[in-house]
Amino acid sequence: MFPIKVAIMGAGLAGLACAIMLEKNGIEPVIFEKRRQVGDRFINGEILMSILNRPIDDCLAHFSQNYGIYLQPVGNIGKAVIFSENNKAELTGQIGFSNIRGRHPHSFENQLARQVKTGIEFNSEACYEELLEEYTHVVMATGDGTYAEKVQNYRPDLTATLKGAIVTGKFDRYTVYAWLNNHLAPKGYGWLIPLSEKEANIVIGYPDYSENKEKDPNVLWERFYEDVCNKMGQYLKVVDRFEVNRYLFGICKYPRIGNTFFTGNCFGAIMPFLGFGQFPALLTGIYAAHDLSGKSKYDEMTGHLRQSYQNSLVVRRALEKLDNRKLDTLVKAMDTEWGNKAFNAKKFDLLKFVSYLLRPATG
Prior knowledge:
Blueprint: E1 6-9, H1 13-24, E2 30-32, E3 44-49, H2 59-67, E4 75-83, E5 88-101, H3 108-113, E6 120-121, H4 128-134, E7 137-140, H5 146-150, E8 155-168, E9 175-179, E10 189-194, E11 199-207, H6 210-213, H7 217-232, E12 237-251, E13 256-257, E14 260-262, H8 264-267, H9 278-292, H10 298-301, H11 303-320, H12 324-334, H13 337-344, H14 350-362
Parallel strand pairs: 1-2, 1-7, 2-6, 4-9, 7-14
Antiparallel strand pairs: 3-5, 4-5, 8-11, 8-12, 9-10, 10-11, 13-14
């Protein structure tokens, strides 16, 4: 039997997860990374939220128990504080995990890289077409949907502007903060995610719709930064900044074409609702490896991830229709016993349920 040769384009979450699982099944891939090191990008905080990944409640336990992939978070999130223009909600429970991305040695990318035995070819200029000629299979895990769009296997849904910073202050690493306020992030959101007791990531993200293109991102940022300092009751010193323009949200038309697997953001892992997508990104890499090892079919395994993306898109479209008065009402409703119970209902896919309720309103 002709031996399979697997090329992985990208040493991010999906690519590294795929490599780890392939190695466990006796297949040694070749990993091509265009950057000079793993996680060679700005440092920021992200969240693995249980509510986005139901019926799985503990994502990190799921990866270690089922796949032998081990990830250590910044902290388990026991409280989420959500601000609208005039209201505040506090949700408690097993909300999820916070973690670090980028150049930080404790980032998820670097944690995965330490579990990979295969060498990584950095500063690679290898293109997809060249790899197809040399390898029997290609796993596309380049970190965004641009390459999938290039090969005409991508449905773009929106682009967004992200503007953020690393700040110093005093933080509880087990509490995260979110903002739903069109005055600060029009049709978008803001976050404060602790990286430690002394550092945190603050960021606003909003879609690049025509009505937003005329807004000055620096003015929006200053409003947000001032509000964060006020809400936290302290001066937050900015020690690093980052900005991402026209960040692409979308999903692939086909998870697999021939012997090419579309994983991570090439698949459509970023959930439009809140902008997080680490859990599905890792799963796409794992599922691709399972297919390559003859254990399952990639198209079938990723079906639930495609549905989650669609559910998330419906909820985002619905939130975009809410003005600040309605967002105040929504946040007020969250700050109730029933709101907290719904948020923490285990084995209940709240995102799916809400998306079905909202589909008529969003068309």
